[in-house]
Amino acid sequence: MKSELEMTLSSRRILTESVAKEQITALSDFCGGLMRPDKYGEFEPIRSTFDPADLSDPIRSLAAPHGSFFYRKGRPAHVAGEMWNRTHPPTARFPSPLFSNYWTGRFDGKWAAKVGLERVEDFLFEMFRVTDSDFGLLTTEVDRKAKNTSSKSFSYQGFDLISGVPGLYWINLFSDRLAEWLGLSGLPKEFAISKRLPGGGISLKFCESPDACRDIDVLQKQRAAIDWLGPERFFDIQNPNRRIDKPDW
């Protein structure tokens, strides 16, 4: 993909088979099949043909402890993503992560512009509702890498909400509980466009186009918003191991 947009959703909702079915069905049915996968699998490379009439195998794979559902649409791909079940098996020595339901997604930039960025935004909002997530984001690959990777590691850092809010990006979604803890209702309007989500929660949008999300004025607004909300509540790639203030989940 080129100039891709990236999405993440973090949820405490346990991935039972019924929940796995609900999430995969929501992905498949959104906007008449706009995001419906062509291929799926438990890991790369994914080769199985996706059949929306028979979800038994992907549901079973995702609902299992340490399960996953990888998907791709288009050739070359213009939509791709992964749903992760981070729960441990009953015999595990350690408890499962609190945010065990984790969804990552990617959208080709030209494709997203062609179908309409508002469609991609609506998809994010709807999947945030379906997963009952506490935090979600949509931004460019460049923006996400700048805020959540370092020269010491090529993998993303700071995306486990138990370690604080990952950051602020182009579009950010907060559950009512997280929004109340952060005090988002009092955030000055000059920092970002704030709106209530139909299924509950609040979104913050820092600029109209993702192309502007690395502009200096946008980054300054995000920095000012973090300072206003409390920098001790946010992950910082410059100091990833610092002590973080977090909600009593």
Describe this structure in words.
The protein is globular, with a radius of gyration of 18 Å. α1 crosses α2, α1 packs antiparallel against α4 and α3 crosses α4. β2 and β3 form a beta hairpin. The chain contains seven helices and ten strands. The mean pLDDT is 94. It has 249 residues and is of the alpha+beta class. The N and C termini lie far apart (36 Å). Helices cover 29% and strands 21% of the residues. The chain has one domain. The protein has a ten-stranded antiparallel β-sheet with strand order 3-2-4-5-6-1-7-8-10-9.
Name the descriptors:
29% helix; 10-stranded antiparallel sheet; alpha+beta; 249 residues; 10 strands
Topology:
Blueprint: E1 5-11, H1 17-29, E2 39-41, E3 48-49, H2 56-63, E4 68-73, E5 79-85, E6 101-107, H3 109-115, H4 117-131, E7 133-140, H5 141-148, E8 171-174, H6 176-182, E9 193-196, E10 202-205, H7 216-229
Antiparallel strand pairs: 1-6, 1-7, 2-3, 2-4, 4-5, 5-6, 7-8, 8-10, 9-10
Helix pairs in contact: 1-2, 1-4, 3-4
